[in-house]
Amino acid sequence: MRLTFLGTGAAGGVPLWGCDCPVCARARVDASVRRQPNCALLEAGEVRLLLDAGVMDVAERFPPGALDAVLVTHFHADHVQGLFHLRWGNGELDVYCPHDSEGCADLYKSPGPLQFMQLSKFETFELGDVRITAVPLVHSKPTLGYCIEHEGARLAYLSDCSELPPATLEFLQRWQPHTLCLDCTFPPGTEQPRNHFDLTQALALSRDFPDGELVLMHIGHKLDVWLSTRPDALPSGMSVARDGETLVCVGTP
Amino acid sequence: MRLTFLGTGAAGGVPLWGCDCPVCARARVDASVRRQPNCALLEAGEVRLLLDAGVMDVAERFPPGALDAVLVTHFHADHVQGLFHLRWGNGELDVYCPHDSEGCADLYKSPGPLQFMQLSKFETFELGDVRITAVPLVHSKPTLGYCIEHEGARLAYLSDCSELPPATLEFLQRWQPHTLCLDCTFPPGTEQPRNHFDLTQALALSRDFPDGELVLMHIGHKLDVWLSTRPDALPSGMSVARDGETLVCVGTP
Is the dihedral of CA B66, A84, B78, A104 positive or negative? Predict the structure, then answer.
């Protein structure tokens, strides 16, 4: 099972409009440190899934048939805006998503080829030989994380969240992902981190998954700035994702 | 006064996702016939205005201070989606728009540096030495066209519309724009053209402006296909806009 990050940024991305912090200034001249909206392509055997659709060129990257489905975590624009352009085209595309009566803009009103499939909390379904469980997360809009299993390898994709509901934490403790991709928007010491994890919380959570790889994503520019002067801040088994990076998730025999 | 089209396409753009018509197929290999979301930059003296914000790289093209304001015709995603990314940045940007209680996605809820200024029908205001009148249009969402005057040159930007309300037509007949940019999504013979002009309607309207230049925009792929075999279909004084094209609008002395 391979996961390729198309984007790893918090809302607004890196560089942020009008921001002159060292990281945003560098990102204007060095594409390698830019962060597009958080979004990833999962490939497992013959199955290709897009996890969120915040990058704006979804229509160009994925012609009809290139994806088996999109798994949307929630309906904030930076997680679905790449779907807007597909709606006047031909083809079909299943979009799994949480129950959210609002959706985003007129996605529900004018879905075109998009077929929205609303998932219940802890609902499990299969796409080919990939088994997926939708787990509820705490965020400012109804939000699901996705726990994805293929040939014994287990990957959890948890974006966006400020907290794991107890039942979700219990599920994950039992399920023990080999790879856990987690929203970590803010640096430590953020006063009242709103709607997203900060690094202090991510470090605390990592203790529940001693054998798993924890990959931080949905990164805000302030966390990048904080990390830039602390190259050894992350413990072994924890890393920060980069746009374009591919993870390989292999199960233990 | 100069108007540069950043995009000239109907919703979904050209090429359309999954469409194999001759125009969409060609647009995949020939960037010169692609159409991004309809959107233009107006430059008049020292004033720079963005007319709609459908292109996705507004944040990159226009750092804080590069624009005096954005004039939004309406809140469909393909006219405002470029504003989403600016909202977590620094700076200020005035966004003139119609009264629309819905807006688009969470633009109103999380405006960040955007200051939405709702305009009444036929309201006139000035930005530097540019005089602007907002005129109501008939579309599936509250929509304004913008009549823009600078040093005697008059340019009307009318996107999106299926019809001009009588009072708007009267205003335009009296005002007599030198350049009239008009939504023309569909080819002639479209059965019940919905929410947008077709070429038959555009040709009919042009008779009211015998001395003006009529520039068609918000072009759908079917109109491009229709025109591709009829190079002489448009009368003198009427043209189809292309992405990247610049019009110069000079008033008569």
Answer: negative
* Residue A247 covered by a domain: no
| N- to C-terminal Cα separation, chain B | 15
Asked whether residue B253 is assigned to any structural domain, the reply reads no
Q: Where are the beta strands (DSSP E) in B31-142?
A: 39-44, 47-51, 69-71, 93-98, 114-119, 124-127, 130-137
User: Does the pLDDT value for residue B227 go beyond 80?
Assistant: yes
Kindly report whether the peptide bond that precedes residue B253 is cis, defined as omega within 30 degrees of 0: no
ipTM higher than threshold 0.90: yes
Contact B10 A77 (CB under 8 A): no
Q: How far apart are CA B145 and CA B72, in angstroms?
A: 9
> In angstroms, rounded to a whole number, what is the distance separating the alpha carbons of residues A104 and B20?
29
Domain of B234, in residue numbers: 2-242
Widest CA span in chain A: 49
| Residue A126, both tokens | 């299969």
Q: Which of A195, A220, A12 is nearest to B112 (CA)?
A: A12
For A182-209, the pLDDT digits (tens) are: 999 999 988 777 899 999 999 999 999 9
Chain B residues in contact with A77 (beta carbon < 8 A):
81, 84, 105-106
* Contact criterion met (CB below 8 Å) for B51 and B157: yes
| pLDDT value at B57 more than 80 | yes
End-to-end CA distance of chain A: 15
Number of domains comprising chain B: 1
Contacts of A104 in chain B (CB under 8 A): 105
CATH number at residue B34: 3.60.15.10
Does the residue B178 lie in any domain? yes
Question: Cβ distance A182 to A200 under 8 Å?
Answer: no
Interchain pair A64, B17: CB under 8 A: yes
pLDDT in tens, A118-148: 999 999 999 999 999 999 999 999 999 999 9
Residue B250 lies in a domain: no
